[in-house]
Design a protein that fits this description.
mainly alpha; 4 helices; 87% helix; flat
């Protein structure tokens, strides 16, 4: 996954996240808006963190599978912790799922487009 694709996916996700957050607010008030925003930002943080880890693991002198496995575990712990904090703060859980669901179709669509345009 190229870092330029990650940057493009990040920009599009943030552009889609803004009206989705407003929609969540209209649907379920403050809890809905903050839930969509939290879910979208957690999924975006996960993608960017994973892309950096892949770029680092691909570089010469990488720490090998042990450091990669530890980093993946810490990444999951941090992101699930962020979701737990958001849910305990009172955000709407369905809105969180809505925010988490924004990234996959954007990533697939832009990835397919980039593959089609590749020489």
């Amino acid at each position: 996954m190229g870092l330029e694709l990650v940057g493009r996916v990040s920009r599009v996700t943030l552009l889609v996240l803004a009206p989705a957050t407003v929609g969540g607010g209209l649907w379920a008030g403050w809890a809905g808006a903050s839930g969509v925003l939290a879910g979208g930002l957690v999924s975006l943080a996960s993608l960017r963190w994973l892309a950096r880890a892949v770029a680092r693991a691909d570089s010469p002198g990488a720490g090998g599978w042990r450091s990669t496995g530890l980093a993946a575990g810490l990444r999951h712990l941090a992101l699930f912790g962020a979701l737990a904090v958001a849910l305990s703060a009172g955000v709407h859980p369905v809105a969180v799922l809505g925010g988490l669901s924004l990234l996959p179709p954007i990533l697939i669509g832009l990835g397919l487009r980039a593959a089609r345009l590749a020489p």
